[in-house]
């Protein structure tokens, strides 16, 4: 990427960790040097945080790149590490999950309770003929059974494939077929936006097309009527009547733990495969290091859905392997009112909150009076994941949720990486708003230019990972070639003749190093704009827009332009109080265009800005710029199946042509 991009960045604020947190932090600054001295020995020490049935013979086997094997010869059981060992150590009465249903019903599960339910589910699955290596699809709302189902699979060595409960029958069908799942675990439905939302009919439609499925286990959550077939079994009649005695067998460190499909931009989703020992080592360590988790006193809450990797790694495996107490919430942030999240923080005295920029920007739009109405004094650490967080959103989060004093950890990672890779350490790093800052100890990240050269500080390019890491994906399920092509063929040895040398993982994200060498994520490479020969990142223009007091959220795309190649087209959601109709709207648009030009330079001035009420988002909350590009270029919309709310696009398309 060009120098224009490198010059855009101008965020200079910096926030050191609170002294008390720094003094008591789980991980201190020496971890970096320790890992650098001997990376593999460092990861061995982190693997030792787990309980192994058999110790490994070799830390890393990288003799057949890019197919990695970690902790070769080692054996362990993931569910044992997440449950049994805490119970055996006398912590069975400790709360594992404070569950809050959307309608306000609650359940409290101790480690002993969750252990019992998991053992029963493991026995039930075994009785249904599920054995190690079989695949089980999980299509559930955010209820404790989702965690128990995943852990039950892990316990018996079955590979789970969790499919987000908002996905359609087609999406579910494709995923069940790709993994040839033998059993589906679902529910009659869950609660969304104040009413029951059915799941079972979607499963029925999918299972009709999936001959591999032998049984469907159905949790009763909403109590609504469901159609019933001979494959269906009620969870409460099958699992809850099964024996609670179950001895966890150890599995090989490289035994497949789960497949998780990334929606991606192409039609065919990629089944990302994660395995056992390395995955648990890194999710467990990063939970301890990045969230500074103190299992005795912390109450942790990750607002993600279990259908995403964040839910896998930081609701199930990371927190439970560390013996955390956590909150799990079934519903939406504005049901029955816009203070619901803060009410939950207040009620359970949450100390660590992990959420997404899309949520933070929504809260900004709703206004700071809402969090101000609750007691958030229990909080001590805030995290962000999923998209680049705009500096103003970061500052708002710290100010209005974090009392202007809490550390914010902006954590960069992917379904493919399995665990957090780039993030501040809360007791060490002087964080800069908008930057994920530094590779974690044991991780080797870099930013390369088009030629594959590492860019100097101040330069921008492509984010890569130079060394294998324990929780890395092992392949794309059933498609090794696509694995190599997608991630390993852009740079390094995998790029063939021109790219000799080491194997380099291509993350698909644009990034830059600032003058101190800190990393700033700039959005997906596909989204980068080329304006008059200059690469400009969507993230930076969006952040400039969000830094204007009248803008809550913005999305920026490059649209074909006869003179500049691509021109910047922006979509902005005004903040609650901004006047946006008629002349006031025109005035605001003119002001915003100038504001961007002033903040980033004239090259980044949008050709056109539209004020919109909403933005198209994936179901995991990421902005779908591809669809906005279709609108900006007056094309009919491409694949909208992963869109969260399809009415949004109609609203935006019908308004197009209005803004200047
Ligand atoms: C964990 C997760 C991965 C993509 C990733 C990047 C974006 C995630 C980010 C971030 C900037 C962060 N992303 N965290 N970008 N800063 N802190 O979200 O996994 O759903 O696979 O998405 O999300 O573009 O490549 P996944």
Automatic annotation (TrEMBL):
Enzyme class: ligase
Keyword NAD on entry: no
Transmembrane parts of this sequence: none
Name of the protein this chain belongs to: Acetyl-coenzyme A synthetase
Domain AMP-dependent synthetase/ligase as annotated: residue spans: 89-469
UniProt family annotation: Belongs to the ATP-dependent AMP-binding enzyme family.
Binding-site list for Mg(2+): 546, 548, 551
HAMAP family: Ac_CoA_synth
Keywords: Acetylation, ATP-binding, Ligase, Magnesium, Metal-binding, Nucleotide-binding
MF annotations from Gene Ontology: acetate-CoA ligase activity; AMP binding; ATP binding; metal ion binding
Alphabetical list of NCBIfam families matching this protein: Ac_CoA_lig_AcsA (TIGR02188), PRK00174.1 (NF001208)
Name of the encoding gene: acs
Modified residues annotated as N6-acetyllysine in this record: 622
CDD domains (UniProt xref): ACS
Gene3D superfamilies: 3.30.300.30, N-terminal domain of ligase-like (3.40.50.12780)
Cofactor requirements of the protein: Mg(2+)
Tagged with keyword Chaperone: no
Ranges of residues in domain Acetyl-coenzyme A synthetase N-terminal: 30-82
Pfam family of the protein (one): ACAS_N
Function, as annotated: Catalyzes the conversion of acetate into acetyl-CoA (AcCoA), an essential intermediate at the junction of anabolic and catabolic pathways. AcsA undergoes a two-step reaction. In the first half reaction, AcsA combines acetate with ATP to form acetyl-adenylate (AcAMP) intermediate. In the second half reaction, it can then transfer the acetyl group from AcAMP to the sulfhydryl group of CoA, forming the product AcCoA.
Reactions listed under catalytic activity: acetate + ATP + CoA = acetyl-CoA + AMP + diphosphate
All copies of domain AMP-binding enzyme C-terminal, residue ranges: 540-622
Gene Ontology CC annotations of this record: cytosol
Record-level GO BP terms: acetyl-CoA biosynthetic process from acetate
The EC number(s) this enzyme carries: 6.2.1.1
PTM annotation: Acetylated. Deacetylation by the SIR2-homolog deacetylase activates the enzyme.
Binding site for ATP: 386-388, 410-415, 509, 524
């Amino acid at each position: 990427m060009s120098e224009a991009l490198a010059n855009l960045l101008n965020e200079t604020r910096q926030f050191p960790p609170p002294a008390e947190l720094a003094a008591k932090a789980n991980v201190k600054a020496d971890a970096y040097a320790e890992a650098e001295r001997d990376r593999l020995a460092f990861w061995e020490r982190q693997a030792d945080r787990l309980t192994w049935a058999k110790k490994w013979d070799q830390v890393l086997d990288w003799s057949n790149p890019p197919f990695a094997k970690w902790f070769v010869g080692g054996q362990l059981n993931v569910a044992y590490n997440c449950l049994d060992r805490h119970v055996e150590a006398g912590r069975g009465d400790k709360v594992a999950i404070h569950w809050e249903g959307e309608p306000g019903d609650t359940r409290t599960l101790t480690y002993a309770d969750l252990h019992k339910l998991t053992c029963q589910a493991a026995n039930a699955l075994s009785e249904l003929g599920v054995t190690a290596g079989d695949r089980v699809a999980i299509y559930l709302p955010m209820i404790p059974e989702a965690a128990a189902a995943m852990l039950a699979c892990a316990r018996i060595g079955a590979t789970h494939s969790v499919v987000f409960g908002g996905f359609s029958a087609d999406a579910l069908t494709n995923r069940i077929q790709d993994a040839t799942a033998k059993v589906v675990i679902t529910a009659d439905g869950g609660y969304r936006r104040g009413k029951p939302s059915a799941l079972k009919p979607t499963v029925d439609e999918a299972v009709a097309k999936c001959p591999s499925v032998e049984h469907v286990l159905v949790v009763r959550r909403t109590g609504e009527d469901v159609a019933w077939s001979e494959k269906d079994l009620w969870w409460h009649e099958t699992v809850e009547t099964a024996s609670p005695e179950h001895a966890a067998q150890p599995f090989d460190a490289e035994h497949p733990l789960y497949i998780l499909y990334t929606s991606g931009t192409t039609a065919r989703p990629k089944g990302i495969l994660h395995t056992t020992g390395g995955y648990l080592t890194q999710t467990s360590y990063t939970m301890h290091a990045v969230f500074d988790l103190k299992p005795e006193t912390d109450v942790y809450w990750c607002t993600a859905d279990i259908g995403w990797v964040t839910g896998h790694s930081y609701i199930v495996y990371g927190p439970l392997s560390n013996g955390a107490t956590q909150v799990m919430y079934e519903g939406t942030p504005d049901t029955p009112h816009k203070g619901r999240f803060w009410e939950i923080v207040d009620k359970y005295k949450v100390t660590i909150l992990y959420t997404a920029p899309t949520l933070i920007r929504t809260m900004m739009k709703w206004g700071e009076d809402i969090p101000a109405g609750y007691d958030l004094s229990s909080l001590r650490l805030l995290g962000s994941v999923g998209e680049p967080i705009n500096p103003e959103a970061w500052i708002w989060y710290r100010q209005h949720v974090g009392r202007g004093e809490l550390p914010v950890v902006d954590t960069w990672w992917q379904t493919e990486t399995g665990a957090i890779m780039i993030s501040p350490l809360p007791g060490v790093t002087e964080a800069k708003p908008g930057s994920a800052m530094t590779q974690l100890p044991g991780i080797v990240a870099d930013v390369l230019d088009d030629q594959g050269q590492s860019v100097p500080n101040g330069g921008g390019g492509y984010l890569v990972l130079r060394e294998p890491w324990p929780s890395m994906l092992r392949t794309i399920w059933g498609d090794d070639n696509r694995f190599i092509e997608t991630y390993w063929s852009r740079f390094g040895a995998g790029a063939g003749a021109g790219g000799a040398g080491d194997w380099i993982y291509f993350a698909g994200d644009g990034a830059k190093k600032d003058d101190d060498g800190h990393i700033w994520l700039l959005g997906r490479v596909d989204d980068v704009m080329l304006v008059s020969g200059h690469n400009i990142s969507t993230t930076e223009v969006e952040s400039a827009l969000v830094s204007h007091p009248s803008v809550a959220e913005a999305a920026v795309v490059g649209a074909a332009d006869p003179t500049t190649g691509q021109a910047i087209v922006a979509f902005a959601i005004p903040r609650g109080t901004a006047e946006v109709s008629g002349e006031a709207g025109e005035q605001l648009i003119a002001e915003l265009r100038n504001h961007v030009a002033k903040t980033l330079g004239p090259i980044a001035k949008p050709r056109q800005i539209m004020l919109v009420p909403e933005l198209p988002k994936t179901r995991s909350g990421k902005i779908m710029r591809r669809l906005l590009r279709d609108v900006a270029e007056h094309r009919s919309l491409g694949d909208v199946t992963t869109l969260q709310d399809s009415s949004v696009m109609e609203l935006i398309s019908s308004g197009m042509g209005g803004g200047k």
